[in-house]
Amino acid sequence: MARSGPKLTRIARTLGVSAATVSNALSGKGRVSAEMVEKIRATAAELGYVPSQAGRALRTGRTGVLGLVLPDIANPLFPQIAQAIELAASSSGYGVLIADSRGDVSTQTKAIERLIDRDVDGLVIVPRRGTRIADVGCPVAVIDTPSTPGNTVAADHWGGGRQIGEHLKALGHRRVLIVGNNPASNVQNDRAGGIRSVFGEGCHTDTLWIEPLERMNGKGCPLGLAEKVAEGYTAFACISDLHALRALTELQRAGIKVPEKASVTGFDDLIWAPVITPALTTARMDMTEIAAIAVAALVKAISERDPTDPQIGAPVTAETSKVPMHLVVRQSAAAPLGSQPIHTPTTAATPVIEGGHQP
Amino acid sequence: MARSGPKLTRIARTLGVSAATVSNALSGKGRVSAEMVEKIRATAAELGYVPSQAGRALRTGRTGVLGLVLPDIANPLFPQIAQAIELAASSSGYGVLIADSRGDVSTQTKAIERLIDRDVDGLVIVPRRGTRIADVGCPVAVIDTPSTPGNTVAADHWGGGRQIGEHLKALGHRRVLIVGNNPASNVQNDRAGGIRSVFGEGCHTDTLWIEPLERMNGKGCPLGLAEKVAEGYTAFACISDLHALRALTELQRAGIKVPEKASVTGFDDLIWAPVITPALTTARMDMTEIAAIAVAALVKAISERDPTDPQIGAPVTAETSKVPMHLVVRQSAAAPLGSQPIHTPTTAATPVIEGGHQP
DNA sequence: ATCGCATGATTAATCGTTTAATCATGCGAT
DNA sequence: ATCGCATGATTAAACGATTAATCATGCGAT
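^ inputs. structure came back:
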């Protein structure tokens, strides 16, 4: 709807100048005397002037809107991501239009098209399981994982895995089961790889992928972790807090105390991580930072680009493409029975130590 | 950015007619011969014409964009809501712009203003804890709970509570602890009220509000549920799956088996409900339906409204304002020890029976 | 034969902003 | 005194669609 507020012309008439002068003064582009600028600024503020996006968009070919595409919108990380992107975008003066693709890969293209048709200036895409983004007609920032070609910026998932691994190793764990969803995901692979990289000589890791298991036994099937404990695994390093939750409750239900009998760690520091019992040790990504970098790169690309040319571009690049993850130490991981922890500085980054319930 | 695609004029020139005719043909408004309409439709489709939102918005005063405001974006329900709203909006030809207010009430106004300044045609607001929505300059749909004045459409939280309560009662529970976050929330109050309404003669319910407890003992503090079990409570009816999760893990950790020794139920059917052990019995709202009604009401109000008048309106109203919730029966609630379940049809609505892990 | 009218299409104005091109003015240098 | 130039402001065109007003045409009725 059209804002009811004053138009540019009204400010111009109020001050007895032309609309062009007002526009120039407000944008600081043309030649306007300092005093005039001052007067115009003042009355614009006083009248509560807000430029019409429509008018501006029509003239400049820029809408000031970014599109956000999360092919897997049901993802519990969605709130974090959306929040961070919206913050970054709005503080750069951009709006954020969302598009959902119901987890469906074919609908993803439709969703992107919907955004393009609405003339977004750029897109932020968090791709689903290694989907490559086809050339769209506007700048695109891809948030996946540093090892993915075409990635713009992402958390250092591999490094996060290493931190989790080092934490577990320092606690004394030698047999660790990595629990993930799907090996086709670059993110999950990097996290798992990071964990594995820590356990060398005299250690053993194996990986349990849930999705194939569920294809056989049905959704929500037991993971059989009690047996794994019997096999000597003392820690379950889960690729996401969602899996950690699943592992934790399954172990508890089987009468295996966490963390005394088995340690469990997660990833992402999802909303429930601090409030479950025991509170979940996990690795968190700095979405605020990631979003800021992604949006900045996008904004740069947008401003450098000629709005009329229908460029078919690769994803934009940022100076920093890898943002460190932060280990959040809570209660779900501890030294295994019959082993004393090794006291070594575990990671380069300082881990966040957080109690489950400090006053 | 400006779409690279063909403009209205190009179609006009291609067919040797005026732009006005093309516009009329495509919108079906003016007087155009049937054959002309056909030809124009055809070439428009062939050329892949997409109207410029900017041009249209400038002329009509309608942007075709709705704003979505979730004051508590960190809410784990967010994905569900956003997904449903986006679906409903896009199938009505609208885009969805999001605004976050970081859970802060004062920032909420700012967020709404950001959307208004971007000329959204209407707003969907899921208010935080009974916040009243001040008059904004455009149609607003409020999704809260039917008992809230000014509510447009919402799940029947009270009815959902009743279903949960009846389920527990039918299982044989007589001492039930309701676990909520904050009594200031209309939604939570309605849910709790619905549960309570079921337990009359010879039954006992009490309510535990987490937020006041945390203000005393710190975030993530223990809820002391083991003591409650000792006091004779056999079921914990939580107002949200998040609390249910907290209760479940705390009980498990204390060695109290769920559901044998204590039943736990939730609300919302959040992502983890089906995959934890035991899978969570909960009540789900039909967000798709709610979103459809909210958006439909909004669209109606928008089309009836004169885009130029800066109406200061109350929230729009819908024909149906109360959408039933669905009980999802899984494994976390069962008959208490030493009591046989009463076999009664528990609810009017057919509950969804869902296994934790069927093949 | 003429008027009126319905039909189908065109003209031109408009939405609000930006911006290139133009214009007026005063001042310093020749 | 005149030219050139810098400065500050104005004019006017443009973006792409919509729509009220207008125009041309043919046909039936008087």
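The mean pLDDT of chain B is 90. Residues 2, 7-9, 19-20, 23-24, 27, 29-30, 51-52, 54-60 of chain B lie near DNA strand D (CB under 10 Å from a C1').
thumbs up if we can close this ticket
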